Amino acid sequence: MDTKPKFTERKFLVVLIFVTSLFMLWGIAMTLGDTLNKHFQNVLHVSKSRSAYVQLSLFGAYAVMGIPAGMFMKKFGYKNGVLLGLGLYAAGAFLFVPAADAKSFDFFRIALFVLACGLATLETVAHPFVASLGDQRTSDQRINFSQAFNGVGGVIGPLLGGYFVLKGGQEHSNDLISVKHLYIVIGAVIALVGVAFSFLKVPPLQDPHVVATDSYAVAGEGHVQESLFKKKHFVFAAIAQLFNVAAQGGTWAFFINYGHEIMHLTDEHAGYYFSLSMVMMMVGRFIGTFLMRYIAPNKLLSIFALGNILMCIIVAQGFGVVSFVALLFINFFFSIMFPTIFSLGLKNLGAQTQNASSFIVMGVVGGGLFPPIMGLIANHNVATAYYLPIICYTVIFLFGISYPKLNKQGV
Fold first, then answer.
1. CA distance linking residue 237 with residue 292, whole number of Å
2. How far is CA 34 from the centre of its chain?
3. Max CA distance (Å), the chain
4. Of 95, 97, 86, the residue nearest 119 (C-alpha)
5. Is 411 helix (H, G, I), strand (E, B) or coil?
6. Closest Cα to residue 242, out of 54, 405, 393?
7. pLDDT tens digits along 170-189
8. What are the CA-CA distances from residue 317 to residues 16, 108, 307, 329 (Å)?
9. Fewer CB near the last or first residue (10 Å), C or N of the chain?
10. What domains are defined for the chain?
11. Strand (E) positions, 265-310?
């Protein structure tokens, strides 16, 4: 038996590269949405707590689309699932045109919701898709590697938003024209990617998680789902993912506000620092992928959660440069959390893997529920609002340290 399983196989290499690029594309959309928060506050004159409904539209789509996307993937396969996700992504981007013309915050939220339904579909499909491109024992490494390019997209999003949307003194810095033009280009690019992917030949896949060797593989669908919720490691993973994305959504939603109000930066420059924090996340994922060779993923997850508890305490003090550096480091420690929780939650689920993927993706709705709550505090003091994510990282820490007991079949 090979004690050192390969990262992937040569026949899957082209597909892995293409699917990994999808992680980058939805990273752009998510962080670009966070730059829209501040722009909508400026142009449409909405409060911080109301602007956080941008995150509710983005992340709320995951609760709506998680299970349908999983059902679609199960019936029509990974490739068609990707095409559906890209189609919705492009459609949502093009809806920014009538939303900008109407100057309507609610219309923008509808456009973001449609776009995010595409993102939710891509996430539901892409994680088990990447997991299927090699040995299950290296699925943590593959997913973290692909998620590192989600970090690349996370860097690009704020750069685009800072330069084209938030940059002061340009012709359309105080209206919605630049937003409309930017999303027309994004929609066109995503549509072209979809056309290219439709021509890609995907080798026959046998998802290593979905091997029909467990007692539920031949059971009825109702029995499969009933037994799924008896898997403690999966249930806790879904809960941990909800709190994880809640912390992410709140941290990102008010980053630019923090830079503007605490550090007295312009919105544009605060957006560029937001992009730098995404670089920190990307670096964290590459380092985390390397460290998982020597440290069990659940242990590393707990260590990073403790790191973010400390960072949040420092950020909440509003100490100026020290607190702002800690705000940047939140993304470094956040880096491995989403993919690691996802991968650990899917371990040893056999034929239940695709259903489990849908439910874990639904936990992303936490990113829509948490920012409005943080926004109520941020309306008075944006620094103090950063005490709230400590609750989330405590849950993640508990998931990490208890994982071996939850999943007795081992990690």
1. 18
2. 13
3. 65
4. 86
5. coil
6. 393
7. 554 567 888 899 999 999 99
8. 43, 34, 16, 15
9. N
10. 10-406 (1.20.1250.20)
11. none
